[in-house]
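Page header: ASSEMBLY MODEL / two components / 227 residues total.
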Amino acid sequence: AQSVTQLDSHVSVSEGTPVLLRCNYSSSYSPSLFWYVQHPNKGLQLLLKYTSAATLVKGINGFEAEFKKSETSFHLTKPSAHMSDAAEYFCVVSDLTGFQKLVFGTGTRLLVSP
Amino acid sequence: NAGVTQTPKFQVLKTGQSMTLQCAQDMNHNSMYWYRQDPGMGLRLIYYSASEGTTDKGEVPNGYNVSRLNKREFSLRLESAAPSQTSVYFCASSGPTVATEAFFGQGTRLTVV
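Prediction written out in full:
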């Protein structure tokens, strides 16, 4: 069975400093991995996805993530936080066999202070 | 550019009342999903539909029913609402392969009193 663990429920950074949101996954097969962002009272928007091509994936708004099979990790990073990055972030795994059922992590709330 | 459209956006129900949440997508996707979002629990899958005419239970199906009316529409019904069903509900759809991302509606905030 697939599962996702987001290691921090909250992360606080100052504007202009790096962002690191951690995600570990468990999957019996080669997974697809996604990061979604949810701004307050909004729906979910795809930030980036990994689908067995390049292990370093670049997304929107300067975010990127690196797939590390040996560590079963897919951490999300950004070199310099912006106030508009304050939101909730979800790491999601999808098994590459059979029907696509997305399994969500519990989310990490990113707080950005001036 | 509508994508996935959910109605209503907000709803308050009394315990025992019924209601149907509507969802429609215009991206010609085969797969559609209903999730609920509760604080600290991420999104949990209620039901999904791999294609028109098929539906399957997800992680938390109790108290819900679904209908895949056609390729575009996938509705979620609460027959007898309970306070435990107070949540934000999201509909989503996705494309033909497991590597394609899901697109989400804006959500329905449901309160059961």
